[in-house]
Amino acid sequence: MKRLTDIGTIRRTLIKYDFNFSKGLGQNFLINPSVCPKMARMCGIEENTAVLEIGPGIGVLTCELAKKAKKVVAIEIDNRLIPVLNETLSDFDNVKIINDDIMKINLKNLFDSEFASMDVVVCANLPYYITSPVLMRLLETKLTLNSITVMVQKEVAQRICAGAGQKNSSSISVAINYYTKPEFLFCVKRGSFMPIPKVDSAVIKLIIRKTPVCKVLSEELFFKIIKSAFLQRRKTLINSLNHNLKLSKDILINAFENLNILLSSRAENLSIEQFASLSNFLYEHFKQINV
Ligand code: SAM
Question: Which of 31, 121, 209, 261 gives a 20 to 30 Å CA spacing to 44?
Fold first, then answer.
């Protein structure tokens, strides 16, 4: 089997298939040979584990996953890569490549048809232009997943792992911490890719919580509050929610005082539990308000 992180092999493969990188699809392929074996080792594969990979590229991570997992299903949007993958993965009979868009494919049907009664983990070097939407789609679909191990931009990884109540937290980091327990695994320098991206990367592992970290009466309201809270992060939370959710300041001040949250708090000051209490308080006391 050819070493797929070898620049010569990549160049020859790309020339053979007349392939040129698409910036729009986030195509930065790994050329550092140590990264994929490490991801495959750390993503939680056991004897009966199946892996969902997003964006296999020319198959460099797919190979390492296929050596360990019972089955690998890889979703690749770029149909020019399908013949390449058919060649580079021809040694494996436990890999299925699907030419589709991870943002459009019906994930529930995919899991039912490909992964029935198997433990499933996600492992991927994500295209950065859709990092947050992909993670939210995987989590909101409530799939039977054990964990999600992904390479993302280093700053995004730090934000996610910081959790709520931190200076660099965001609506995505709060939402991800609600569903999962994030772990920062390791950094990957920008020189590990071809072509070289503008930023460094990092691999994180999101371990799915069996039950969410706190009790939330209405997830819809909870996520609306979090999204609105971080829209203008410099504003006080009361002003943001008043402006974005059209909730009166009287209602908000009443809620903050009842919950002992400082009236001057900004979104980044609240813990995930405080967001949950705020959402639950508003839900219970003001069900009639249309947020
Ligand atoms: N896994 C390879 C590696 O590590 O070298 C490639 C990773 S590259 C950063 C991202 C890959 O995701 C590309 O192959 C790209 O074509 C694919 N991709 C981009 N958008 C996608 C989408 N919406 N659905 C599925 N694959 C996508």
Answer: 31
Question: What spacing in Å lies between the alpha carbon of 109 and ligand 1's midpoint?
Answer: 21
CA distances from 85 to 10, 16, 117, 206, 260 (A): 12, 13, 27, 27, 56
Q: What is the predicted pLDDT for the residue at 273? A: 94
φ, ψ for residue 72, nearest 5 deg: -125, 125
Is there a common fold for 7-208 and 219-285?
Answer: no
Q: Which residues, including other chains, have CB under 8 Å from residue 240's CB and lie 6 or more apart?
A: 228, 229, 230, 231, 232, 267
pLDDT in tens, 114-162: 999 899 999 999 999 999 999 999 999 989 999 999 999 999 999 899 8
| Nearest atom (ligand 1) to Cα of 103 | 23
75 Cβ below 6 A of ligand 1? yes
Has this prediction a pTM greater than 0.70?
Answer: yes
Dig out the tokens for 11 from the structure. Answer: 């160049």
| Plot region of 142 (φ>0 → left; ψ -120 to 50 → alpha; else → beta) | left
How high is the pLDDT of residue 275? 95
> Candidates 4, 61, 76: which one to mutate for ligand 1, based on the most atoms within 8 Å of Cβ?
76
Q: Hey, where are the domains in the chain?
A: 7-208, 219-285
CATH of span 7-208:
3.40.50.150
- Domain 219-285, CATH number (from 2.40.170.20, 3.40.50.620, 1.10.150.170, 1.10.8.100): 1.10.8.100
Residues with pLDDT less than 70, the chain: 1-2, 287-291
User: Is the beta carbon of 61 within 6 A of some atom in ligand 1?
Assistant: yes
pLDDT of residue 212: 83
Predicted confidence at residue 6, as pLDDT, reads 83
- Residue 246: HSE in the Cβ half-sphere, 13 Å Cα cutoff: 3
